[in-house]
């Protein structure tokens, strides 16, 4: 089975070909960290931040100055960021398409790890056949299926315990142009020992180990977060890292039915831990981002606002943007 971490994109493509979000990598890439930082603190307002402030925030996350500037430049070329200049001063903000995409992705992260509805025992099967010369189309289809919560039981046959929604059907139509068939039904058990159960499309043991590792990594941080001991750059780093780690779980465990999972499945404890850390660090992290931006501006920063998991579950609403020129201040 292909590794579930082979998903091609951090969030799904919304169909705008000019927008290309960074590819998922093992570990944090400079572009991925930059997108997370801007999404965590400017998603609602699409506020423009001085490039020098973005470079400073990325430096605190371990990204070199050269790596930060390269990441900003590439994100602008991809259509993720929009740049503006005032004299020698440059600022960047999330593009409208990227903001909408990231808002949908955040909603998916939270809702996909919430308690699942009772399973009806049926599976949705997506079968497709695309010629080898359509490798780009095959890759896009697989990435979209993975994002929709499907996994490959066999090559060209992907499954999910959930029903295919109308938006998902429209996305598949766009990607396949008819070279796909969808069924929904129950598995017919066979007597032979060699038959493969649908749940085996997912590596259950590996998913469980990922949950255990997440809990080991972040549980010790709960007392310091609750007491307010995590502040400044440490709060921003931890909040960015816990998001970059947790957002993998909806792909690994797309609300798989608890009825066929091992007892004591750790989806809920992981979701509760993520919410406690991410929400608990929202205020100190926002204060620090404001303080860093203030070093490079001579105006207030009304557009810097950290959202919570409750905001993500409701769908972060994109407000009217601040002026495109962004904040004034030091040269970027």
TrEMBL record:
Concerning InterPro entries, the annotation shows: PaaX-like_central (IPR048846), PaaX-like_N (IPR012906), PaaX_C (IPR013225), PaaX_trns_reg (IPR011965), WH-like_DNA-bd_sf (IPR036388)
UniProt domain Transcriptional repressor PaaX-like C-terminal: residue ranges:
202-290
One of the protein's GO biological processes: DNA-templated transcription
Mind giving the lineage of the organism this protein is from?
Bacteria, Bacillati, Actinomycetota, Actinomycetes, Micromonosporales
Report domain Transcriptional repressor PaaX-like central Cas2-like positions: 117-189
Recorded protein name is Phenylacetic acid degradation operon negative regulatory protein
**Occurrences of domain Transcriptional repressor PaaX-like N-terminal (ranges):** 31-96
Can you tell which superkingdom this protein's organism belongs to?
Bacteria
């Amino acid at each position: 089975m292909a590794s579930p971490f082979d998903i091609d994109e951090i969030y799904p493509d919304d169909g705008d070909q000019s927008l290309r979000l960074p590819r998922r990598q093992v570990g944090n890439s400079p572009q991925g960290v930059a997108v997370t930082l801007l999404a965590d603190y400017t998603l609602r307002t699409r506020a423009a931040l001085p490039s020098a402030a973005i470079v400073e925030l990325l430096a605190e996350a371990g990204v070199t100055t050269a790596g930060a500037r390269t990441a900003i430049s590439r994100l602008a070329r991809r259509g993720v960021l929009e740049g503006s200049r005032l004299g020698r001063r440059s600022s960047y903000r999330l593009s409208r398409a990227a903001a909408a995409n990231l808002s949908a992705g955040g909603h998916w992260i939270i809702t996909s790890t919430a308690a699942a509805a009772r399973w009806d025992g049926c599976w949705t099967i997506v079968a497709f056949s695309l010629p080898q010369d359509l490798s780009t189309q095959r890759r896009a289809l697989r990435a979209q299926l993975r994002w929709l919560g499907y996994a490959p039981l066999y090559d060209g046959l992907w499954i999910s315990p959930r029903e295919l929604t109308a938006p998902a059907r429209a996305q598949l139509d766009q990607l396949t142009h008819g070279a796909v068939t969808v069924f929904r039904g129950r598995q017919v058990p066979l007597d032979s020992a060699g038959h493969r159960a649908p749940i085996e499309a997912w590596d259950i043991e590996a998913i469980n180990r990922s949950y255990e590792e997440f809990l080991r990594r972040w549980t010790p941080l709960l007392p310091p977060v609750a007491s307010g001991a995590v502040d400044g750059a440490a709060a921003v780093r931890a909040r960015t890292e816990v998001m970059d780690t947790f957002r993998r779980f909806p792909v690994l465990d797309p609300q798989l039915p608890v009825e066929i999972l091992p007892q004591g499945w750790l989806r809920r404890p992981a979701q509760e831990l993520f919410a406690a850390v991410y929400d608990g660090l929202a205020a100190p992290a926002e204060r620090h981002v404001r303080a860093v931006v203030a070093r490079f501006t001579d105006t207030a920063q009304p557009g810097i606002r950290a959202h919570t998991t409750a905001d993500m579950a409701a769908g972060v609403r994109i407000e009217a943007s601040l002026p495109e020129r962004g904040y004034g201040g030091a040269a970027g």
